[in-house]
Amino acid sequence: MSAIRQFARLPAPLIDYIVHKSHATIPSLPRIFSTSYQQKGSLSLETLDASKGDRERIVILGSGWAGYILSQRLSAKYQTLVISPRSYFVFTPLLSSTAVGTLEFRTALEPIRSKRKPNIEFMQGCADNMDFGRKTVTVEESVVDHQQGRAMRGDKNKESETSGQVTSVKEARRREGKRWEISYDKLVIAVGCYSQTFSTPGIRENAFFMKDIVDARRIRKRVLECFEIANLPTTSEQLRKYLLTFAVVGGGPTGMEFAAELSDLVREDLTKLYPELVPKVNIVVRDVAPTVLSMFDEKLSQYAMETFSRQGVEVKTSNHVQNLRPGLPSTDGSEELDIAGAQGCYTLTTKEDGDVGVGICVWSTGNMMNPFVQKALGKTYGFPSESATITSGKPFKELDANEWMIEKHPKTGAITVDDRLRVQLHTKPQPPSNSASDSNSSSPPSTPTSTAALSNVFALGDNATIRSTPLPATAQTASQQALWLAKRLNQNDLDREHFTFKNLGMMTYLGNWKGLVQTDGVMGDISGRMAWLIWRGAYLTMSVSWRNKILIPVYWFLTWAFGRDVTRF
Amino acid sequence: MSAIRQFARLPAPLIDYIVHKSHATIPSLPRIFSTSYQQKGSLSLETLDASKGDRERIVILGSGWAGYILSQRLSAKYQTLVISPRSYFVFTPLLSSTAVGTLEFRTALEPIRSKRKPNIEFMQGCADNMDFGRKTVTVEESVVDHQQGRAMRGDKNKESETSGQVTSVKEARRREGKRWEISYDKLVIAVGCYSQTFSTPGIRENAFFMKDIVDARRIRKRVLECFEIANLPTTSEQLRKYLLTFAVVGGGPTGMEFAAELSDLVREDLTKLYPELVPKVNIVVRDVAPTVLSMFDEKLSQYAMETFSRQGVEVKTSNHVQNLRPGLPSTDGSEELDIAGAQGCYTLTTKEDGDVGVGICVWSTGNMMNPFVQKALGKTYGFPSESATITSGKPFKELDANEWMIEKHPKTGAITVDDRLRVQLHTKPQPPSNSASDSNSSSPPSTPTSTAALSNVFALGDNATIRSTPLPATAQTASQQALWLAKRLNQNDLDREHFTFKNLGMMTYLGNWKGLVQTDGVMGDISGRMAWLIWRGAYLTMSVSWRNKILIPVYWFLTWAFGRDVTRF
Q1: What is the distance between the alpha carbons of residues A20 and A460, in angstroms, rounded to a whole number?
Q2: Which residues of B touch A279 (CB under 8 A)?
Q3: For A174-202, what is each residue's pLDDT tens digit?
Q4: What is the CA radius of gyration of chain A?
Q5: Which CATH code is given to the segment(s) A203-365?
Q6: Residue B529 contacts residue B307 (beta carbons within 8 Å)
Q7: Residue spans in chain B of domains classed CATH 3.50.50.100
Q8: Is A290 exposed, middle or buried (0-12, 13-18, 19+ CB in 10 A)?
């Protein structure tokens, strides 16, 4: 309590900055963001420092599979601080179920703040910058963020330059959130990825994504809304047909599971509520690849295709989406109605089928690196001599102080880590000496002269890739990495053994109480009802809290007994 | 199915209107809205007419306590059509619990469309106009309404004139939704009320209401958001104090129950998650009256006051709220921060305490008539000779055809009904002959010369008042009226007996597992833990579906065992 009253003793420039933020001249940035000012004045930071004691502070950026699981497993000998724009962890395999009402939204969520784990600290914000030399992270607050809980699609901070550190007052003022600096002993980068749209026009603005809980809520509302609008006397027969066409783009497990759950919703529940409309429903999955669920063995993916076909889900492969916009297709010959996208329908344009009217387009075509990894981590740093060791090339002294960069995968842009998940640095590549060798349109940069490994900065999950053995960007990879890292850090034996991935197999739901399970182990490949039972059993076992272990079967029972809830709000 | 294809056979003017809505000239309104055009062309209306058979159609406007309960109880010998802007019924006594996470939102909802009751038809829209002579209602669609699920505060259609029927094309175009006409054999007006703000500046824009499910969701999010912002290092000590001040305006059962639930949330859950912040929390209930819960006996309301005081809920009576705006109070001497209301705090101005910074202001000060009752039902009609009987005054033939109005309560504006809940008409009052008698500022209009009763139009719930015995505007009144009317209509014996209200008593929750119960019967007055048990038991019994009868105790158990879920999205 007494700590709070020290606010009055804050250094004058900071008080000025806080109080007169909008009017007064802003002192130069390095002064504002220097650790000493902020930390002395802030209740939260003082409390954090006080409760830290002589423990090491592990700062985890992100609360997805990697960040959340790691935070849960780290022992109390560390002070664990999670920094994430979301106040919860999303159990992503159940998102599709929540998007159609098989489960309630919160059954797929775990709050980061929890009574069970009082040693986990949380601050709601986004990492914005980092200093490996001073061992600090700059965080921008994001409690009130209207995009919160939705898939991030790269439209935040789109103005920020790639050109390096934040140095101008103007840019600082332009940013909305307030920022603070936090020091770390160990840092874990697990910020995940954004949804990949391949820059297809209109997707970012008009598609429904499938990454976060508000996405699921929006989809649930919109799907039921399409039926309700289609049922109105003022809806034309043509618009009705469009509204009841549900497009899913992306034939991976997420997209296919959503299509399956949607067909369950239509068949099991909406048939009774909208008997006239259900015959007009059209669920179409589109993928640019020649097959869907291509990660499964051919026999299983063949079974999946047959199951989908029996359930009336149409799968269109080698299909190229070119555009998505609100409004009716113009190919009808009639003038366009002046209805907004949400009230009317959307028009999806594909190379193969031209303009198609759809009620919703759910987009799930994989990942792209998020701007933090792309930009904030794309800068050059001085060599952090305290926490990095040269692994190849010239020794430290001969190198320019600001020539070090985080090593990234040349194709995906993911952070390259070694087999201990440690972030790797290399010196800035020199421009190729001979431009005539530029025969390929994107020539690889020349090999950097020196490389180094950070000893206290880790990257895991979707935003990282292990140099020696790239792994699929899945929840399984992320959680195995988190479990491994937690164990190593708890036991202080990071050098003892390197991380190895153990493929536990894959599962997916196909609708109508059928599934696919593919494992390397004794179980082998399973499809149908038994696979569905394994699918449900596995997710129930994996769900984190007892609260959800109780709630999930209750909702499964209620859905079976009474059907899905169709209230919309 | 074949009915659908008749769309092509729609009369040309209507097709023009639909297709060229935004461009073409619009035919005159009476033509568009004539029943024959719309009903012939529409799948929904044709299906509705086909499934009606020789039954009577009862159109129910509204899906609150009165409308929903009535729809559930009407026998299949009627075709029941519910028209409501919401796709669900809200079990209002549980709203406070959902607003703090004791229960999940959907436990307080029942969908109107339900497999259990296939004979109930539903169209999502708002009644907009009615014609008692032709026995039709005009409905405006409202499936996609961004205010949906929130308390209505009179800001929709605020431009519409009081001056009578929609006659100008211009006004019709200004309206957003599309409209259609539906015919009825019997009509039930149960549209409920809006939240009363007494035109206090800033309330409509900035207060959080407590009438619908999205209100509850917004409150839950905002309350937890206040704690999270208060916890940020960038939040000043002063802003922190404001954010943790929770204002409740209105000392009736709704406001007091919310304050009680909020203090439970803080004491039982947030203490462990934000130990440094909880001592700063300040819950203040304000009411303009000298007492709160004044409908209870003095002994009980005294007990309530003591219980609240022990839980740290401050009650300020005789307190006049004058304004609510986003931003910091300016009385601090410092310049205002440029933070938006949602990110910073709100400033509540009262006559007694001046400017006070608050994190949220929950507003619950009773009802006002909604614009539909105020305006659409405030017009003059021709005498609907088929469905009305003169009860006093001149016989029909001598009366001007357009001089009839719905009788309303002179003070509340509620629709006056007789003891059979039938809507009453009277002739338009003549201006007072002697203006010198205008001593009172709002002189009552002179007595109308003739009155009549509609035989097939009923009004019940909050928007109606029985001429002989005005009843409190409560869920109890509404549901008793609905049950009575359903029975009479099912048995066709409306003339047999009139409606009588049986006071079953009152209950309220006081927090900390204590309650109040007051009955006229054998139970008498009960307070404390036993009253809380009765409170929970009663609501569990009253909850409509088995789904919720199962879910509610599950959530009560989970809240007891694991605490409330604090994820925000």
Answers
A1: 41
A2: 1
A3: 345 688 999 999 999 999 999 999 999 99
A4: 26
A5: 3.50.50.100
A6: no
A7: 203-363
A8: exposed
Asked whether the predicted pLDDT for residue B381 surpasses 60, the reply is: yes
Residue of A nearest to B149 (CA): A569
How far apart are alpha carbons B84 and B141 in whole angstroms? 9
For chain A positions 186-245, those within 8 Å of chain B (CB to CB) are: 212-214, 217, 224-225, 228-229, 231-237, 240
Q: Which residue has the higher pLDDT, A259 or A332?
A: A259
CB atoms within 10 A of CB B529: 12
Q: Are strands B109-111 and B88-90 parallel, antiparallel or unpaired?
A: antiparallel
pLDDT for A419: 93
Average pLDDT value for residue range B16-25: 36
pLDDT at A362: 97
The radius of gyration computed from the CA coordinates of chain B, to the nearest angstrom, equals 26
Binning pLDDT at 50, 70 and 90, where does residue A351 land?
very high
Identify the sign of the CA torsion A394, A396, A401, A405: positive
Reading phi first (left if > 0) and then psi (alpha if -120 to 50, else beta), residue A89 is in: beta
B2-195 has which fold? FAD/NAD(P)-binding domain (3.50.50)
Query: What SS3 class is residue A459?
Result: strand
What would the mean pLDDT of A372-379 be, rounded to a whole number? 84
Grouping H, G, I as helix, E, B as strand and the rest as coil, residue A125 is: strand
Q: How many CA atoms lie within 13 A of A225 on its CB side?
A: 24
Q: Specify the pLDDT at position A204.
A: 92
The 10 Å CB-count burial string (b at 16+, else e) for B95-107 is bbbbbbbbbbbbb
How far apart CA A416 and CA A431 sit, in angstroms, is 21
Domain with CATH 3.50.50.100 in chain A: 203-365
Q: Please name the residues in contact with B333: beta carbons below 8 A apart, sequence gap of 6 or more.
A: none
Q: What is the pTM of this model?
A: 0.86
Give the tens place of pLDDT for each residue, B111-160. Answer: 999 888 888 999 999 998 899 999 999 998 888 776 677 776 554 444 33
In the structure, what pLDDT confidence band is assigned to residue A48 with cuts at 50, 70 and 90? confident
CATH number of B203-363: 3.50.50.100
Start-to-end CA distance of chain A, whole Å, equals 42
Whether the CB-CB separation of A374 and A408 falls below 8 Å is answered with no
- First CA to last CA distance, chain B: 42
Q: Is B21 on the interface with A (CB under 8 A)?
A: yes
Confidence band for B252, pLDDT divided at 50, 70 and 90: very high
What is the token pair recorded at A55? 């423990």
Q: Tell me the pLDDT tens digit for each residue of B482-534.
A: 999 999 999 999 988 899 999 889 999 999 999 999 988 777 899 999 999 99
Pick the residue from chain B with its C-alpha nearest to A22.
Answer: B338
Supply the pLDDT for residue A42: 59
Interface test with B, best of A35, A552, A565 (most B CBs within 10 A): A565
In whole angstroms, give the CA distance from residue B283 to residue B249: 11
